[in-house]
Each structure stands twice: as C-alpha cells, then as structure tokens.
Amino acid sequence: MRRCLEQAGIATGLHYPIPLHLQPAYAGLGLAKGSFPASERVAARALSLPMFPHLTEAQQDRVAAALQAALAVGTMVS
Q1: How far is residue 10's CA from residue 61's CA, in Å, rounded to a whole number?
Q2: Taking the CB of residue 23, how many other CB atoms lie within 10 A of it?
Q3: Contacts of 68 (CB under 8 A, 6+ apart)
Q4: What residues contact 11, with CB distance under 8 A and at least 6 apart?
Q5: pTM, whole model, 2 decimals?
Q6: For 48-62, what is the mean pLDDT?
Q7: What integer pLDDT is reported at residue 44 of this predicted model?
Q8: Banded pLDDT at 75 (limits 50, 70, 90)
Q9: For 3, which of 9, 28, 54, 67 is 20 to 30 Å away at the CA?
C-alpha cells in the first residue's frame, strides 16, 4: 500500500512505529515485547495518510482514489 501511494505521489508516514509500551519513556513500567500484541501488530502495519487543516477536498479525493487503486491492485495480487 505504502509503495503504491508513494508511486502516486502521496506521502505516508508512521506516527508510532514503536508501540508506546516499548518506548524508552515507559521502560520503567517493565512491559516487554509481547505485553500488548495487538498494539505491536498495529504499529508494524499502520499507515498514516496525509491529514492537515488545509487539505483540500480535491486532495482528499486524490488520496481516496489512490487508495482505491492500490487496493484494487492488492486484490489482484493476493
């Protein structure tokens, strides 16, 4: 998905590539990898789409169309 969007000129990001419980700020809690498997799975797979206050409707439509195209390619490959 990320590669398809990048090829379409749509930037993506990962806001929390490391789950919060594994961040250095929370090390004192003693939570090891595997403590929150769902959040760890999401962190490994989540994708942040463009989102900012001045994102125009046309830009939103472009992102949505690129997502639909990427999903269509993904279903054909699977």
Answers
A1: 12
A2: 12
A3: none
A4: 5, 50
A5: 0.69
A6: 95
A7: 86
A8: low
A9: 54
Query: Among 9, 6, 16, 26, which Cα is nearest to 48's?
Result: 16
- Is residue 14 predicted with pLDDT exceeding 90? no
52, 65 contact by CB (below 8 A)? no
List the structure tokens of 51. Answer: 């989102």
> The tokens 């990898």 sit on which residue?
33
C-alpha to C-alpha distances, 5 to 15, 43, 49, nearest whole angstrom: 17, 19, 9
φ, ψ for residue 52, nearest 5 deg? -160, 160
Q: Which tokens is 26 given?
A: 């929370």
